[in-house]
Amino acid sequence: MIKVGIIGSTGYAGAEIVRLISSHKNAKVEWYGSRSYIDKKYYEVFQNMFQIVDDKCLDDNIDELANKVDVIFTATPQGLCSKIINEEVLKKVKVIDLSADFRIKDVDTYEKWYGIEHMSKEYIDEAVYGLCEINRDKVKNARLIANPGCFPTCSILSIYPLLKENFIDKDSIIIDAKSGTSGAGRGAKVNNLFCEVNENIKAYGVATHRHTPEIEEQLGYAAGGEVMINFTPHLVPMNRGILVTAYAKLNKNVSYDEVKAVYDKYYDKEKFVRVLDKDVNPETRWVEGSNYCDVNFKIDERTNRIIMMGAIDNLIKGAAGQAVQNMNIMFGEDEWEGIDQIPMFP
Amino acid sequence: MIKVGIIGSTGYAGAEIVRLISSHKNAKVEWYGSRSYIDKKYYEVFQNMFQIVDDKCLDDNIDELANKVDVIFTATPQGLCSKIINEEVLKKVKVIDLSADFRIKDVDTYEKWYGIEHMSKEYIDEAVYGLCEINRDKVKNARLIANPGCFPTCSILSIYPLLKENFIDKDSIIIDAKSGTSGAGRGAKVNNLFCEVNENIKAYGVATHRHTPEIEEQLGYAAGGEVMINFTPHLVPMNRGILVTAYAKLNKNVSYDEVKAVYDKYYDKEKFVRVLDKDVNPETRWVEGSNYCDVNFKIDERTNRIIMMGAIDNLIKGAAGQAVQNMNIMFGEDEWEGIDQIPMFP
Amino acid sequence: MIKVGIIGSTGYAGAEIVRLISSHKNAKVEWYGSRSYIDKKYYEVFQNMFQIVDDKCLDDNIDELANKVDVIFTATPQGLCSKIINEEVLKKVKVIDLSADFRIKDVDTYEKWYGIEHMSKEYIDEAVYGLCEINRDKVKNARLIANPGCFPTCSILSIYPLLKENFIDKDSIIIDAKSGTSGAGRGAKVNNLFCEVNENIKAYGVATHRHTPEIEEQLGYAAGGEVMINFTPHLVPMNRGILVTAYAKLNKNVSYDEVKAVYDKYYDKEKFVRVLDKDVNPETRWVEGSNYCDVNFKIDERTNRIIMMGAIDNLIKGAAGQAVQNMNIMFGEDEWEGIDQIPMFP
Amino acid sequence: MIKVGIIGSTGYAGAEIVRLISSHKNAKVEWYGSRSYIDKKYYEVFQNMFQIVDDKCLDDNIDELANKVDVIFTATPQGLCSKIINEEVLKKVKVIDLSADFRIKDVDTYEKWYGIEHMSKEYIDEAVYGLCEINRDKVKNARLIANPGCFPTCSILSIYPLLKENFIDKDSIIIDAKSGTSGAGRGAKVNNLFCEVNENIKAYGVATHRHTPEIEEQLGYAAGGEVMINFTPHLVPMNRGILVTAYAKLNKNVSYDEVKAVYDKYYDKEKFVRVLDKDVNPETRWVEGSNYCDVNFKIDERTNRIIMMGAIDNLIKGAAGQAVQNMNIMFGEDEWEGIDQIPMFP
User: Fold this and answer.
1) Which of B172, B194, C199, D180 could cross-link to B249 by cystine, CB 3.0-4.6 Å?
2) 3-state SS string for chain B
3) Paired residues of A258 in beta bridges
4) Are C2 and C331 in contact, with CB atoms under 8 Å apart?
């Protein structure tokens, strides 16, 4: 039985880890960390867990935690994980960080986009970017996982094969993304009130969103050289889901079948990435509640561009689900254990 | 392995049976019935099932079906199940009917409220009203289950204990219910279009809704005499969920603890009915995606009335989940097999 | 030109006053009060007002304000208006208070339900309860208007005629109400975040909601004696709208036509109260964006009860619109000036 | 008083024309055309119009209509207007066609993208593309207006100034658009049911949407040469609103101020186009219920691209409002008469 500790268990992503681990055969949450709700019953914060979880929320205490559990998930704001981990901790437990602290290899880029100083530069190199379908082998033996961001997960999985196979021009990539509101977190902000979000759509972080360098770095590995993209996220009046619509110039004349073959080459054996049938567009409703990433593409011969699309549940494949997937890989579990829920519709 | 046939597998309730059975250890769907989509791949209708279900939709053929499966779920409009079942069928398979055909013992009442002639009156007596927590023993040996309606399930579970224990005046019951839109089905009707439902709330079927006599009959058994209620359903702009707010006169001065003890007496050992802590109101978000029914109450000493509240996911405890729960009881499975999903929030 | 001052102009109700006054021929906002946004351009808080309002938000200064304007709207939390008004102010300007401070004549009842001490008891008697259709004559000459609450407006208009004409039993009234989320205000609270409200319905303030004594007092005037009700509000995932479903015992056998005649007697000449055709239920979408209150009823002969229903836009007839309606009456304007917008659908 | 006839008055756009004309000082609807609801009271279809419109719906009869009214709005599917107009009609009345029949000058392009034969080719040249801010002078004397599509209106207003002034590369334009569901019309289709749209976002018509050639033609006039774009619309779970996020390569190094000056040059005197302050992104909630188009831009120096954004209410500036604006111009009315409603929020 894998003993699990969660720092930040009362945010949306943290709560989703709790829910997923609760249906995992070989894992159990031993530490419900939550600075905001110390000593409060966990189910009093999330009544869906009434009669399911009886534990109380605990303060953060990384040393005590390291002695009690096998793996720590940090579902916390940027800067926290890098502040609290150290060699003592990493010797004892695996750490899966859902924040951005260890996602970007170039520390200057991190500090510029996030506006904070990195407190554990020495672990940046070691940390493995936990996009399971791309980095599975490295994940296996990692001590520290940088769990990918929600937008990067969906963007990279949608674009990676075509960039890797040199089908598209790496300097032409534009990613227009749409996210449900749970991605904005559970903090009490006017901008996220029901009446502010409902009956509205807006772009935010235009040309400045922090997921930009993360996507660029990973796409850079695929392209074998620096990639610069436009990335524009939008806030959609729904709870869950991310949809990515990405545009790029084709490097050559290609047929539907040729492109399909490339996607299949990378994803045919992947349980959690589904390449849809021709002309079926990914929709967030078809992946909600699951760890799936649905992808597809459309060639526009008129403009010689290709439109690449992907859909995920931002809290599962975009956060908690992928974190558990990484845990499964690290601990030799079936990769889909605890995260094989079928998408729930409607 | 229990072989399952579904007639009406492409409605919302039918699709939910498919989803739940797909995660059931000892059951498997063998027949995806759907008159509207014959020969179409099931996943083409519900893309969430892509790469999960590869079968095609089949026409209704009760005789062939009876030979192939162990249990038939009819998730169809009123009148169909009563038209197609017969002794040959019932000798071979169990039938769990999600329509109203066998819920009401008095055939005149049925025909009056539903406006159709009943085609299998001879099975009305035999049919067991499958509200598992109340009728578990009868369900065990039934051949034919009348799976309760969504509003009746939530209403009866909320009111039953107090009526049975004579705490409330049986002539004073008013049920004000609120339902998500999946309860209206997947038919293409202007009234159920997004723009007609969104940003709106309305009552419908005021004083005439067909679930009224169903609730009255079941409450009548608890009260030991005829019960007449007011029942008003409302349509809420959300996908899933039913909330019941019921009002009744108290027969005597009672304390919180006395009432709580009555609820506990009936539900303490029931996994799927959760009596909430004092002053915590049921909310549909805390049961969405699960088979739970959350109930609670509030005494109003000023008016000597009690407000009884209940919340369910209308597609699960209010339809498909309870149907599978009935199947589990009938086939000697763990009652919660396939339906022990934790509520998904947000 | 009526000069208008608003204290609390950046809440939802305050902003709605701004919007309505902006289309009023003979009124103009001279003071955009907002403690939270002092010196900020009003349109920076509400971008819909970009290029329409160029003023800055001002601090509260009742004395200065009283010298500058003809009427002050206080769209503020309970307790503020009663703290700042005095004879000096009332000699100079009319005051329309959208809070509950002057709605309840019995100060003990106010202090008990609201949990605060009343700071201007001397004006409670003088204040006129501004439910225009009922108290129009008193409004005309008032200095101080207690603008009715959103739930009370809809509840009273739905029930008043039948109670006044003694058609219903005053001790049997149960009001089950449903409100959009703008009624909860613009404060940054976790409970009002999009993801907490969306896909959910819940009751709140069960048997304890502060609008209860306000409704009871007004219904008491109609009944000619003390009235005690059950009142249960629910939060609906939509921006605007209140729906009231009220239940009462009929005092005698009455026909549809007799009841209809009573409603018509009271509302036939009222522009803003529409008695709908037979069997057409009020729905919030049909009044959204307008000052209308739609009402109707259904007799249930089986239970000898009547179901009375009403729908309003909570921010207009339930707050800002009625406040402007009161202003129009007080200043001799056409009653519908500035508030005759047609409901916007969808 | 301008006498107005509407063919298709019970669709969402047609109903919005009714609503707007009802608050127009010098216009009045004389003919509520609706094949689906002949002889039914208009308010029975749209209860918001109860006690406001008492007329019945009438069949289409273009000859009778032409004798009775001064202007005909056709808010109908493609192909109808071009089938019914002729010289007799155009001699008698102005026609404002909200369908696509006369928007595209090249009839082959029309027939290819729309898949229908054009029945009035002889009027294509004469028809004026009624994007008021661009073609105001031509509108003044037109007999036949091709009222722009919702996506084209928002797209063109967002991009036009920079293309006209040669700031952007005409071959690099990508338009990613998002629309509320009223844009899909009031037809009873499964895809537009509440439960199918709610909690979902999807792209549709990828690389094939019919608004593509319309946008290309108009942008072509600005660019002074053929323009080919990528255009991807998305369906958003909200009633109203269109947001356009458009990307293009900058032709040269430009500053914020230089770009701002270009937008101001075109829109400074336009009431209905608002160029927002720096770094304020257009959001649909700030224009909902109004005829405004909010636009803004963001320069991304890293990629040398510019992101152009626009927001409209699809039923008003994107359909009915612009149609009335065209009417006002044609009949010498104040351009904003009947359509100067302030955006309603929330």
Assistant:
1) B172
2) CEEEEEECCCCHHHHHHHHHHHCCCCEEEEEEECHHHCCCEHHHHCHHHCCCCCCECECCCHHHHHHHCCEEEECCCCCHHHHHCCHHHHHHCEEEECCCCCCCCCHHHHHHHHCCCCCCHHHCCCCEECCHHHHHHHHHCCCEEECCCHHHHHHHHHHHHHHHCCCECCCCCEEEEEECHHHHCCCCCHHHEHHHHCCCCEECCCCCCCHHHHHHHHHHHHHCCCCCCEEEEEECCCCCCEEEEEEEEECCCCCHHHHHHHHHHHHCCCCCEEECCCCCCCEHHHCCCCCCEEEEEEEECCCCEEEEEEEECCCHHHHHHHHHHHHHHHCCCCCCCCCCCCCCCC
3) none
4) yes
Residues of chain C with pLDDT under 70: none
User: Looking at the structure, do residues A156 and A266 belong to the same domain, yes or no?
Assistant: yes
**Residues of D with a known catalytic role:** 150
D155 and D114 in a single domain? The answer is: no
Residues sharing a CB contact under 8 Å with residue B138, sequence separation 6 or more, in sequence order: B128
How many distinct structural domains can be found in chain D?
2
* Tens digits of residue pLDDT in D132-159: 999 999 999 999 999 999 999 999 999 9
Domain range for A199: 151-313
Closest partner CB to B342 (pick from A19, A277, A280):
A19
Both A117 and A249 in a single domain? no
Provide the annotated active-site residues of A.
Answer: 150
Question: For all residues of chain C together, what is the average pLDDT?
Answer: 98
Q: What is the pTM of this model?
A: 0.98
State the distance between the two ends of chain C, measured CA to CA, in whole angstroms.
Answer: 34
- Do C157 and C221 lie in a common domain? yes
Contact D241 A199 (CB under 8 A): yes
Q: Is residue B323 part of a domain?
A: no
Check if D201 contacts A (Cβ < 8 Å): yes
Domain contains D204:
yes
Q: Say whether both B309 and B161 belong to one domain.
A: yes
What are the tens digits of pLDDT across the range B235-289?
Answer: 999 999 999 999 999 999 999 999 999 999 999 999 999 999 999 999 999 999 9
- Give the three-class secondary structure for A312: strand
Name residues whose C-beta falls within 8 Å of residue C64's C-beta, 6 or more positions apart in sequence. none
The answer to whether the Cβ–Cβ distance between A239 and C199 falls below 8 Å is: yes
CA distance C71 to C90: 10
Q: How far is CA B232 from CA B168, B215, C246, C283, C303, in A?
A: 20, 12, 10, 14, 13
Contact state of B195 with D237 under an 8 Å Cβ cutoff: no
Residue from the list D207, D239, D245 with its beta carbon closest to the beta carbon of A232: D245
Strand A144-146 with A128-129, pairing: parallel
CA-wise closest residue to C153 among C1, C316, C339, C330? C316
State ipTM. Answer: 0.97
Give the contacts of C249 (CB within 8 A, at least 6 positions apart). Answer: C168, C169, C172, C304, C305
Residues C207 and C306 in one domain: yes
Residues A269 and A175 in one domain: yes
Query: Please, which chains are in contact with D (at least 3 CB pairs closer than 8 A)?
Result: A, B, C
Q: Does residue A170 belong to the interface with chain D, where contact is any CB pair within 8 Å?
A: no
Confidence of residue B157 (pLDDT cuts 50, 70, 90): very high
DSSP state of D49: G
The predicted model gives A146-150 an average pLDDT of: 98
CB B283 within 8 A of CB B203: no
Is residue A84 located within the same domain as residue A164?
no
**Backbone φ and ψ of C26, nearest 5°:** -115, 25
pLDDT at A66 (0 to 100): 96
Q: What is the CATH number of the domain that holds C114?
A: 3.40.50.720
| pLDDT tens digits, one per residue of C250-287 | 999 999 999 999 999 999 999 999 999 999 999 999 99
B334 belongs to a structural domain = no
